[in-house]
Amino acid sequence: MPQILTNSTLDDLSPVHDLDRDQRARLASSGQIAAVPAGKRITAVQEHPWILYLLSGQVCLVRGETKELIQAGGRRALQPVFSEHHLLDQAVFTADSDLLRLDRQLYDSLSNPRRPAVPGSLDELDLSDAEGALLGKLYHAYKEDKLALPTLPKVARAIQDAMKDPNITSARLARIVQVDPAVTGGLIRLANSAVYRGVKTIPDVRNAIIRLGMEITRSAVMSLSMQQLFRTKSPIMKHRMKAAWNRSVHISALSYVIARHCPKFNPEHAMLAGLVHDVGVIPILDYVSRHEIQVGEDELEAAIIKLHRLVGELVVGYWGLGPEITEIVRYSGDWYRDDREAPNYSDIVRVARLYRLNQSESRGPLPRYDEVPAYYKLGLGFPATDGTVDVIAEAGEELSAVMAMLKGDREP
């Protein structure tokens, strides 16, 4: 039977024992003790969101050719099982054990509230040889400006340029949009959606633009054209690109729905923010594909964890999407960030990401979407007794419609 987690469990564990009593109590409240059977294998890359401690039993830590036996009750067991800087380490339990998981982000926010969510430059990354050849190759390609960045789709780039003209007309925008049939169809569907639907059905893209307005059209066109970026000729990378696209579409649609229920936010801009928040994975997967690098799943995942946000900042900067989108890419996974009084689009994407994770991918002590500062700053209210947020849970039809609009009839 697993041990019970109490505040005193953390008192002797390094480095969390440096927190004050109240901070340790808060960290313990989000922690989890799991019973792990002998023979179970875990990897540092999969467990990266958490700080792990061995409370009972025994585990063998494997780092390359080096093995280290960790015995519960020993001095080594007071240290985390995995280092956050060695993502290719593995651990095999050699006896039935109890494993403590603590939320790494919550610990970081408690121990140093001013610590940035990601390093400010590549030079600040702790990249060891043990983390694999791929990570080193990607790092050097990035540092030497040889990591190919995706270009904006043609129609999105044309819209960006056209919108710089203060005298732009709906007729001119319509001519640009009509180059891409999928984007054209998406704009017409959006104009006829429940949000914008008028007395008459809109049959053409020019009238769709008039109904939506210029700014909404720009954000919508950007979003609708993104799908083509998540394509690859590599059979090995195809499933990862498709998974990244589907994940981005879901978070984009959730961001749209949340923004619709929050004052002073543009739902289409939130939709775009959700769609590009994880765009940094594209150049990484593309690099592996183009160079035909043979890579294991854990090694690739380690590279993505280390570099995807920094690469994503390069991409959105290259596209000229502005500092607001850059901030979203940088901090969308920083659950406990609370640096401003007023909510922003980063808060929307954070809640959307956590909602999705809570619904489909939750592992370990991941915070609930209604337990982070962004949730309350957005004024979404208190969750219902069954744990759902009404504005999201009741918007299933709208959510499906937005996802269908973004995906169109094509698969990436």
UniProtKB/TrEMBL annotation:
Residues 149-335 form the HDOD domain. It comes from the Bacteria. Pfam families: HDOD. Gene3D superfamilies: Hypothetical protein af1432. InterPro entries: HDOD, RNase_Y/CdgJ. SUPFAM superfamilies: HD-domain/PDEase-like. PANTHER family: PTHR33525, RIBONUCLEASE Y (PTHR33525:SF3). This is HDOD domain-containing protein. It comes from Allochromatium tepidum.
